[in-house]
Design a protein that fits this description.
Immunoglobulin-like; seven-stranded mixed beta sheet; four-stranded antiparallel beta sheet; about 45% strand; disordered N terminus
Length: about 150
Amino acid sequence: MRKITGFVVILLSVFIFIGCSNGLSGSKPPVVSIKIDNKEYDTRLGTYCWNGNCVDTVGPVELLKDKAPVQVHAGEQIKLNMEYTPKPNEIYLTQINNDSETEIKLNHNQFRAPDKKGTYFYAYNVRWLDEEDENLSHGDAFYAFAIEVQ
């Protein structure tokens, strides 16, 4: 059984390596920022697989423990910016607050800050999938940021 498990791990690693090394430019995924009230703020790159290089990190809360959250007003519009072509085919935004996770629906890469005061962490997950084989990923990444609703 141990030989089979090792073989499966090696096989999966090869598929991930091949899937992550197909035509995306740069040594790392593109930079993503958030725009709030005409001001731009950096996000922090988390786990990614890009051009054959896969990096695993901690989750959003731990990744941002030394970074102050961006101050926002309740209901304020927040836009996610990525200056990169091609755009990812899959995009997900997860909000983390008090150990609760909620998927947030994006509208043209925008969403509104919560109405309730508090600190909210976000994981912005993106994937570049193959057009012919949706099970093949050419690259993926997650970006973390935090806001504090005043």
